[in-house]
Amino acid sequence: MDKENKENKNFGLRVINMGFSTEQPMIKVDRVWSWVNWGVKNTYPQHLLDIFHRCSVTHKQIINRKVKMVAGNGLEEPTNPSQQYKDFIANKFGDMTINEMAVKMAFDLIIFNGISLNPHWNVDNSGLTRLCYIPFERVRQDKFNSEVDNGMPNYCWLSNNWFKRNESEPEKYVKFGSKWINDKSQIYYYMSQDQGIKWYPDVEYSPALNWIDADWEISNYHNNAIKNGFHAGFLLNFATGIPTEDEMDRAYEDIENKFVGSNNANKFLLGWSNGSDGAPTLQPIPMNDSDTKYRELIEVIRNKILETHEVINPLLFGIPVPGTLGGRTELLESLSIYKAVYIDSKQRIIETILNEMAALFGVDITKEPIKLKGYTIDIPTVSSTPVLTIADLIALTSSVNSGQINTDAALTILTTIYDINPDKASKLLKLQTQNNPIL
């Protein structure tokens, strides 16, 4: 820009890009690398974790509650567990106990629809010595893996950081199986089989990813609106001539420091113009209705997230429903249905895997099967009949003796409200009257 254009500049505009796109789960066989890329940059699982941690309160709350429902209560222990069972559960040569591992497995199963473990064979290849947990997001399939037995082992690639592959070079492991036990450390890889998807599982909540993203966008909008005073509500114009850029910056900063922030009502625009009147003018700027539209979207977004997570009763997940109290019977019925259609199937997947590993630790799984405890909610039964206390009885007899109510009315209260039979009610009322000097 030449000097003349700079001097004649009348308007400047800065655009802030608030775009946030949802990565698509592209699965690609690369010609260069031996592993199959999961996602555009081979970081789709990390993207799912990022979504879980920061994008939607509703989504995160549902995931966390699902994990608790599936594995939060731990494993059922036999009455007199064998030493082999105890050794397996303790997993003393591994990185965590089997109870702890079950929770990790449930988390990966619900987030990714897959599970990965690292079993180690013993010296004589007769069984396992330890079982380690492998976060599912760190594992990739080898592109030469075959779905049929071609006489060659299948492989997995493991990296601690697929974002920075040069700093954490992926390592190649044989997929778990007794046929290739010369490789003592193997990768057990389970993925839910979905129609038309070969290499990696499809997450169950994938239809809601855009809604989860929208939930983040709305919260980000409101967060920035608060920080910015909600909107540029006024134009403060000085008709004293146009100062230099430095003078405008200093004036803007001075007013901003005094009036702008989350404790003040609105953001402002500061301007100068040439004019005969030097007094400043304050002009209101109409506010758009984006905030109202976003509020209307919140309920739609939440319902879509609940729907894709197969949530039949939001109250089971600690999510309030306007106008609904959620009675004890309703919650227990909802839990029973959700257990049948969701929890049981997830528990069976984890139990099947752990039973396979336990058998290789020497556990007789026919007598001591590995089984997850069922999820329960403790809802105390509320009695419709109140309990009569001494204080209640004293107050009642005092009312009789003071003339507020007669004896028949007091007996009716005892028999009707407290469900006490007439003879006992009469005795209680007479006894209390005789034993109380005041009465």
Per-chain topology:
Blueprint: H1 3-7, E1 27-29, E2 36-38, H2 44-54, H3 57-71, H4 83-90, H5 98-112, E3 114-121, E4 128-134, E5 139-141, E6 155-158, E7 171-174, E8 188-191, H6 209-227, E9 232-238, H7 245-259, E10 267-272, E11 281-284, H8 290-308, H9 328-360, H10 390-401, H11 407-417, H12 422-435
Parallel strand pairs: 9-10
Antiparallel strand pairs: 1-2, 3-4, 3-8, 5-6, 6-7, 9-11
Helix pairs in contact: 3-5, 3-9, 5-9, 6-8, 10-12, 11-12
Distance between the termini: 101 Å
The overall pLDDT, averaged over residues, is: 77
The secondary-structure element order is: HEEHHHHEEEEEEHEHEEHHHHH
Note the main sheet.
3 strands, antiparallel
Strand content: 5-15%
The count of DSSP E runs of length 2 or more, i.e. the number of strands, is: 11
SS-based structural class? alpha+beta
* Helix content range: 40-55%
What global shape is seen? flat
Low-confidence runs of at least 5 consecutive residues: 1-21, 261-266
The Rg value, from CA coordinates, equals: 34 Å
State the domain count: 2
**Largest sheet, order of strands side by side?**
4-3-8
Compute the number of helices: 12
Structure characteristics:
439 residues; alpha+beta; three-stranded antiparallel β-sheet
Textual characterization of the structure:
This protein has twelve helices and eleven strands. By secondary structure, it is of the alpha+beta class. It has two domains: 1-220 and 327-377, no CATH class; 390-435, no CATH class. The protein has a three-stranded antiparallel β-sheet with strand order 4-3-8. Strand 3 and strand 4 form a beta hairpin. The longest helix has 33 residues, at 328-360. The termini are far apart. Residues 1-21 and 261-266 have low confidence and may be disordered.
